[in-house]
Amino acid sequence: MSVSYVCITAILLPSSLGLIVDHNTSDANSNDPVLPEQVKDYVDQKISDVTRKMLELHGMCQVRYGEHCFFTEYYGIGQVNQHAAKYICEEKGAELGNIYSKSQYDKLVYYMTPWIAARVNEHPGFGVRTGMTINPQSKVVYMSDGSRAPYTPWATSKYPTSNEGATTVWLVIYPQDSNRSGMENHIESGATDAVLCQVKIK
C-alpha cells in the first residue's frame, strides 16, 4: 500500500510583506488578486518548511539538500535488488536518490556511516542503491531523470568498470576506511544492503 502525506496549513502573512492587490493589472474575467512576488515566495517557503518538518517526523528527511530530502532504508546484507529498491522508495511517496554535488555526497556519507555501521556489525562495508545509471562503454553517468550526473566520486581507481552489464550505480560506504567509500557500478541483478530515497520538498 502506498503511503501519502497530506498537510493543510494556515499561513499567517507578516504585516511587513504588505498584501498588495493591483486591480489595474488583474484579469477582467478573474476574481483572483495579483499577489506581490515576495508574498508568493514567503508562502512557498512556509509550505516547504512544513513539508520538511512532516518528512522529518516520519524519518524521511535525514539529510536535506537543495529541493530534496534524503533518507536511507536498511534491509540487511545483500537484500535489496533494483526492483525492491524502487518499490521501497515509491511505497513512501519517494523515488530513488541521486548524487547532486560533493557537498550533498559528504552530508550523506557523514549521516549514513554511523547510522548503518551500527546495523552491519562486523561487516566491513555496505552498499546503498541509488537511482543513477551508467553507460559502461562511454563512462557517462546519468541521474534518474536522464540528465548527466554532475558529480561522480568513484570509490577506487578500478571503477567505473567497463563490464557491459554493470549499468547501475551504488554508493559503497566503509565506516572504518573512508578512502574506500564512493560510487561503484554493478549489474542490475546485484543486491545491496540499503537504498537511498529522495523526496522533493519544493
Can I get a quick summary?
This protein has three helices and eight strands; from the N terminus they run αββαβαβββββ.
Q: Can you put this structure into words, describing what you see?
A:
With 202 residues, the protein is α+β, with helices and mostly antiparallel strands. It has two domains: 1-58; 66-200, Roll (Mannose-Binding Protein A, Chain A). It is built from three helices and eight strands; from the N terminus they run H-E-E-H-E-H-E-E-E-E-E. The protein has helices at 37-57, 82-91, 102-120; strands spanning 63-65, 68-74, 95-96, 126-135, 140-142, 168-173, 182-186, 194-200. Strands 1, 2, 3, 4, 5, 6, 7 and 8 form an eight-stranded mixed β-sheet that branches. A hairpin with a 2-residue loop joins strand 1 (63-65) and strand 2 (68-74). It is globular and about 55 Å long. It starts with 36 loop residues before the first helix and ends with a strand.
Blueprint of the fold:
Elements: H1 37-57, E1 63-65, E2 68-74, H2 82-91, E3 95-96, H3 102-120, E4 126-135, E5 140-142, E6 168-173, E7 182-186, E8 194-200
Parallel strand pairs: 4-8
Antiparallel strand pairs: 1-2, 2-8, 3-8, 4-5, 4-6, 6-7
Name the CATH homologous superfamily of the largest domain.
Mannose-Binding Protein A, subunit A
Structural class: alpha+beta
pLDDT averaged over residues: 76
Instruction: Assign the CATH topology of the largest domain.
Output: Mannose-Binding Protein A, Chain A
Overall 3D form: globular
Report the CATH architecture of the largest domain: Roll
Report the CATH C-level class of the largest domain: Alpha Beta
Ends apart, CA distance between termini: 25 Å
Major sheet: size, sense and barrel closure? 8 strands, mixed
E-strand count: 8
- What string gives the helices and strands in order? HEEHEHEEEEE
Cα-based radius of gyration, to the nearest Å = 21 Å
Q: Give the uncertain stretches in residue-range form.
A: 1-28
Total number of domains: 2
Number of helical segments with 4 or more residues: 3
The amount of helix comes to 10-25%
> Into which percentage range does the β-strand content fall?
15-25%
